[in-house]
Amino acid sequence: MTNENVSIVGKPVKDMYGTTFGTVLGILTHIDGSIQTVGVDCGSEGFKQIPYEQFVLQGDVVIYIPGWRIDAQKILREKRLTIKRMKALTDIMSEHGETKSDADLIHDTYKTKLMELDESESKVKDELVSRLNELDNQEKAVKVILFDAKVQHRSDEISDAASESIQMHCNNLLERLSHERVEVTNVQRRIEEMSIESMELTKPKEEMVQESAMTYLDTTGNGMINQEFVLPKPPAENSESAPQIYAEQQDNQDNSSKSDENDWMSRMEQNY
């Protein structure tokens, strides 16, 4: 265990979108000294033990990375590499037909790996859908608070200062929720794109031969194929904007913070 690992104790924890998460209370180590989990005091939500791999130290702040992002990055990384190897293997087989028997053995291994990843991918997709539902519910709750504050202010139940404070904090929270929603939908899109590519590579040989024959007949004009088989396109990136209630109040400082957060997201992509 290094001094850097020990130094996280007592530091504040924030999520990737700037929300305060808690404070590092301590760490649990394996017999070899490596960190197993990090204990975080989450205030009213109690004490939580979270895997060490879900934390990154940034200056004086410990950044918490949600589990869905760790799982999604792992799936995307492994699937991307497996697909690249299968494509390379296919190229080798087309150039050197005499190696086909040997290549088939490796091809089956990669195909099995893709099928295993598909099972894990299904669980990640469920995580992403669940997180989007949570974000929707949180956004609705914040909007209720924000609107009710406007009613209270109009009825002279709260002061101007209190109304402005509620509006500022609610708008900041809504913006963070919007950032995370865009991040989740981007991951969903990348997973969908890779799934389509994976399906192409794992098609049964008979189906591939049949499609090749259909394509040949269509291009020579000897067939009666009027409709081309087209795989469904992946969903377009949903760059959902922040709600209207706070979008009109964005200023140059907000734009600057978005730029900084985009830089932060880029660094996270490199780390994971």
Structure class: alpha+beta
> Could you say which overall geometry the principal axes of the C-alpha atoms support?
elongated
> What count of domains describes the coordinates?
2
| Straight-line N-to-C gap | 21 Å
Q: Would you count the extended β strands for me?
A: 6
**Residue runs with pLDDT of under 50 for 5 or more positions:** 205-217, 219-250
* Relative strand content: 5-15%
* Radius of gyration computed on alpha carbons: 25 Å
Summed over residues and divided by their number, the pLDDT gives a mean of 76
Order of helices and strands: HEEEEEEHHHHHH
Number of helices: 7
Relative helix content: 55-70%
Q: Report strand order across the widest sheet.
A: 4-3-2-1-6-5
Largest pleated sheet: 6 strands, mixed
Kindly describe this structure.
- The chain has 7 helices and 6 strands, in the order H-E-E-E-E-E-E-H-H-H-H-H-H.
- The protein is of the alpha+beta class and 272 residues long.
- The chain folds into 2 domains: 62 residues, SH3 type barrels; 135 residues.
- Strands 4-3-2-1-6-5 form a 6-stranded mixed β-sheet, with no helix packed on it.
- A hairpin with a 2-residue loop joins strand 5 and strand 6.
- Helix 2 runs parallel beside helix 4 and helix 3 runs antiparallel to helix 4.
- The chain is elongated, with a radius of gyration of 25 Å.
- About 17% of the residues have low confidence.
